[in-house]
Amino acid sequence: MNSATEPVATLQGVAKSYRLDDVAVPVLAGIELLVRPGQFTVLLGPSGSGKTTLLNLIGCIDRADAGQVVVAGQDVAALSDDQLSDFRARHIGFIFQNFNLLPVLTAYENIEYPMLLAGLPADKRARRVGKLLQAVGLADRGRNRPGQLSGGQRQRVAIARALALKPRLVIADEPTANLDSRTGAEILDLMRHMQRRYGMSFLFSSHDPAVIKAADDTIFLRDGAIRGIRRKSASATAAAPPGQAGANGYGHDSEPDSRHNAEAADSEVMEA
User: Fold this and answer.
1) Domain that holds residue 178
2) What is the DSSP letter of 16?
3) pLDDT value for 271
4) What number of H helices and E strands is found in the chain?
5) What string of DSSP letters covers 82-137?
6) Can you tell me whether residue 227 is helix, strand or coil?
7) What span, in angstroms and rounded, lies between the C-alpha atoms of 59 and 56?
8) Looking at residue 179, which CATH number applies to its domain?
9) Exposed (0-12), middle (13-18) or buried (19+): which is 129, by Cβ within 10 Å?
């Protein structure tokens, strides 16, 4: 199946519990989910609903106790721990609420780091890092360490790092939570721009109304179960401008409970 049409993730009958001393605490049960390719998908639910656990399963950070998890066409249960780590590095990028940049490395080096681990040659790393810095509007900040950057700039570095190995899926856990509303809107527009430009999938956990409004698909979680999924039609997704992607055009699988200016630079990023 073509990666442009193949679901980026499917979960069938998935359950997950954690142990607290001798007690098994159920977190997810009976999860059935298809994550569409090339979309902005948002997990929405109250604290304790299982959002982070679901992100961890799809992000191949944790394993399900029962059921099947398929990511980028791979049944992850069939992989050893080392194979799972390699698979995660190749196919999934991560953007964190607290940025998680290495403080002793420059912006350039933070973006380059996943490429070093993957063994990419120096000339290819240099080309790709340079183009990613341009694409996120930080071409003049490559030599700055995280402590010399604003929160928005650090999140831009984190986005570039997440895209370093051209992943099929980018997972973002509350990516705008530590940013003011204006900076958060700029970061959201940047992520939407990159997602549309390269056809990759973004999967968010967020309480930010702007992120929720921008969603193509919204998954409603409560008490460890999916209570509803709202999907936007393909025509509405294509037509909506950045920052307004979730305003109209939703189709419903089930009823829920409840600027960037670097076009020329980033046109070559994923080919570098």
Assistant:
1) 37-63+79-271
2) E
3) 54
4) 9, 11
5) HHHHHHHHHHEEEEETT----TTS-HHHHHHHHHHHHT--HHHHHHHHHHHHHHTT
6) strand
7) 5
8) 3.40.50.300
9) buried
Q: Enter the DSSP assignment of 269.
A: G
- How many domains would you assign to the chain? 1
In sequence order, which ranges of the chain are alpha helices (DSSP H)? 51-58, 81-91, 107-118, 122-135, 151-162, 181-198, 209-214, 234-239, 263-266
How does 207-230 read in b/e, with b if 16+ C-beta sit within 10 Å? ebebbebbbbbbbbbbebebbbbb
Q: pLDDT tens for residues 22-66?
A: 898 999 999 999 999 999 999 999 988 999 999 999 999 999 999
Contact between 169 and 93 (Cβ < 8 Å): yes
Quote the CA–CA distance of 87 and 91 in Å, as a whole number. Answer: 6
In a domain, 27, yes or no: no
Q: How far apart are the first and last CA of the chain?
A: 25
Could you tell me if 85 and 92 are in contact, meaning their C-beta atoms sit under 8 angstroms apart? no
